[in-house]
TrEMBL record, chains A, B:
Protein name as catalogued: Glucokinase
SUPFAM superfamilies (alphabetical): Actin-like ATPase domain (SSF53067)
Organism annotation: Mariniphaga anaerophila
InterPro entries per record: ATPase_NBD, ROK, ROK_cs
Entry annotated with the keyword Ribosomal protein: no
Record-linked Pfam families: ROK
Any one GO molecular-function label of the UniProt entry: kinase activity
Keywords: Kinase, Transferase
Family: Belongs to the ROK (NagC/XylR) family.
Top-level taxon of origin: Bacteria
Length: 326, 326
C-alpha cells in the first residue's frame, strides 16, 4: 500500500532545509541548500524545486511506494493567506515575494502547497505530530534568537485578518525597557529569548560586579544560553538568577496569553527549554502568580515534543496534513 | 408571516434587564427585575422565567405573529461551554451556578439557550447587528467600570479551553503599577476603564497641584468620565491630559492585541467612547506607534454601532442567532 508523506521546507536566513516526513513526524531523508544572498527569487525557487525533486528521487530508492501529498514551508514573515513572504528582514528577497505561486509552476500536480512562518509551523507540528494532538486550544512559544509564537483556537491556527497573527514576542513586557530586535522598547522577545537571557546575564554581572561568576570569563559575543545552563548546573549564582528572572518575565507574559486565549496548554520550544526545571519552574510559578483566580492551576506549561534538530522541517511538513484536513 | 425574534437577558450586579430583539437588533419591548441579594438561585431563575414569560405575552399584544427562537444571556463570569456562572464577585450566587440548566426547566421547548459574559455578548452583538457584520476577525473592548473584551477569530467568538478567553482588561500594562479591581498591579483595566480615567485625573491634579482645574472641585466619588469629557470640551488642561494619557495607555494595549490576533478592526464600546476624537485620536496614534511595520496603518479602531442603552440586551440576544447559525 502507498505510504503518504509530506515535504517540509524551512527557509532560514542562511540555509533552507528540506525533508520528507512520514505521518508520524519522522524525517525519512533531508537535505539543505543555501538561502542565497543574491535576492533573485526566481533563481532561488528554481534551485529549491530542483533540490526537492532530487530529495523525492532519493527517498524513492528507499521506498518506491510513496505518495507525496504536498509541500509545507516555514519562512520568516510567511503569509498563509497569500502564500507570500513579505518584507522579511533576514532574507535577501525584497518586498513581497509570491513564493507559493512561483513554486506551483514547478509542482503543478502537488495536492497541497502552503506557507506560514516558522513559529506557526511549529504550532501545527505540535498539533499534527506532537504533544497537542488532542488539543483544540493551545499556544506555542519558540524561544531562540527571537521569540515566535503560534496560537491555536478551536483546532485552527490563528492567522488573523492579514495572516500575521501570533507575534506575541513583540508584545509589551516592560514599557520603556530593553530595545527589541524590531526597534521597539520593552518587548517580551528582548527578555525571554535566548539572546535576552544573555543580556540578563550581563546585566546581572554588571549589577553585582560579579567577577567570580563563570559567565564573567565570556565575551558578550561568546556567551549563549547553553553556557548559562551549564553554569547554572554548577551552581553559578548569576546563571541561576538569569533563569529566575527569565522565568519571572516569561511567566508574566504567559499569564497575559492565558488571559487573552484561555488555552489548555502553552508549549515552549527552543534552546533555553533544554534547561528543564531551571526555566519551567520559575515560569510556571510566576505565571500562576499573575493569573486571575478562574485560571489558576489549570494551564499546563509543557516542553514541545518536536525533536529540536528536525522541528522546523517537521513543523513545515505538518502544514500539508492540516491543508488536506480541510 | 411569522417574525423571528430573540430574547436578550443582561444580568448585572443590581438589575437584570430583559428585552425582545428583532433581527435588525432593535429592542421591541424590555423590562427589568432586581438581581437579588438573597443568593437563592432557584428563586431567582423562577422570577426571571416569570418576567420573560410576561414580556413575551406583552409583546404578543403588539404583534401576534412572533416566533421566539431563544434566550441569550450575558452575565459576569458567564461560561458559554458549561452554561454556568462561576464565582462572579458581584453576584450573590455563590460558587458555580448552573444557569442554563435551571432555565431550561422553565423553557423546555425554546430552541436556543446560551450564556456568555457581557463583553463577549457585545462582540457577538457587533457581529450580528452592528459594525462587524462583514468581519471575520475583530476585537471588542468595553470600557466601563472595568474593561471587558471579546475576541472573534475566523467568525467565531474565542472561548478558549475553559470558556473564559478574552480577559484582556487583565493583561499587564505597567508592571508594578496601579492596583486593579482583581487585586493585581498594573492591569490595563486600572488605566483604561472609566474609573481608570478618574484615577488618572486625580493623579494629574496631585502632580500639578491643579487647583484651577474644573475637576478639582469634585470629590473622588463624584467625578466620572462624563465630567472629564465636559471639562475637556471647555479646554480644561487636566481633562485634556487625561484623554492623552488614556489614549497612550490604551494604544499600547491595543498594539499588543494586534500582535496577538491581527484583527481587521478593534471596536470600542462604553461611556468613555462618547468623547469621540478626545479618546479615539490619541488611542489610534499611540497604537500605530507601537505596531510592527507589517501592521501599521492597517487596523481600524471603530466606535461600536450598538446603541449604548440597549447594548447589553441586544448583545445577549445576538447569542441566539449565533447559536442557530451552527
Amino acid at each position: 500500500m502507498m505510504k503518504r508523506v509530506a515535504i517540509g521546507v524551512d527557509i532560514g536566513g542562511t540555509n533552507t532545509a528540506i525533508g520528507v516526513v512520514d505521518p508520524e513526524g519522522n524525517v525519512m531523508v533531508k537535505n539543505s541548500i543555501a538561502t542565497p544572498a543574491h535576492g533573485n527569487i526566481e533563481q532561488y525557487i528554481s534551485d529549491l524545486a530542483q533540490a526537492i525533486n532530487e530529495l523525492m528521487e532519493s527517498v524513492k530508492l528507499l521506498n518506491n511506494d510513496l505518495e507525496f501529498l504536498g509541500i509545507g514551508i516555514g519562512a520568516p514573515n510567511g503569509n498563509y493567506y497569500s502564500g507570500t513572504i513579505e518584507y522579511a528582514p533576514n532574507l535577501s528577497f525584497k518586498g513581497v515575494v509570491h513564493l507559493i505561486e512561483l513554486l506551483r509552476n514547478h509542482f503543478p500536480k502537488m495536492e497541497a502547497l502552503a506557507l506560514t512562518n516558522d513559529a506557526n509551523a511549529a504550532a501545527i507540528g505540535e498539533m499534527v505530530y506532537g504533544g497537542a494532538k488532542d488539543m483544540k486550544n493551545f499556544v506555542m512559544y519558540t524561544l531562540g534568537t527571537g521569540v515566535g509564537s503560534g496560537l491555536v483556537v478551536n483546532g485552527d491556527l490563528v492567522y488573523g485578518h492579514d495572516g500575521f497573527a501570533g507575534e506575541c514576542g513583540h508584545t509589551m513586557l516592560i514599557p520603556g525597557g530593553r530595545r527589541c530586535g524590531c526597534g521597539a522598547l520593552g518587548h517580551l522577545e528582548a527578555y525571554c529569548s535566548a539572546s535576552g537571557m544573555k543580556r540578563t546575564a550581563f546585566e546581572l554581572i554588571v549589577q553585582y560586579n560579579a567577577t567570580d561568576s563563570l559567565l564573567a570569563n565570556k565575551s558578550y559575543n561568546e556567551l549563549d544560553a547553553k553556557m548559562i545552563y551549564d553554569a547554572a548546573v554548577k551552581g553559578d549564582k548569576i546563571a541561576l538568577e538569569v533563569f529566575e528572572k527569565t522565568g519571572a518575565w516569561l511567566g508574566q507574559g504567559l499569564a497575559d496569553t492565558v488571559h487573552y486565549l484561555s488555552p489548555e496548554a502553552i508549549f515552549l520550544f527552543g534552546g533555553p527549554t533544554a534547561a528543564g526545571d531551571f526555566i519551567f519552574k520559575p515560569t510556571k510559578e510566576n505565571m500562576e502568580k499573575h493569573l486571575l483566580p478562574i485560571f489558576k492551576e489549570k494551564i499546563k506549561i509543557l516542553p514541545s515534543k518536536l525533536k529540536p534538530g528536525d522541528a522546523a522541517i517537521v513543523g513545515a511538513s505538518a502544514l500539508v496534513w492540516k491543508e488536506l484536513d480541510k
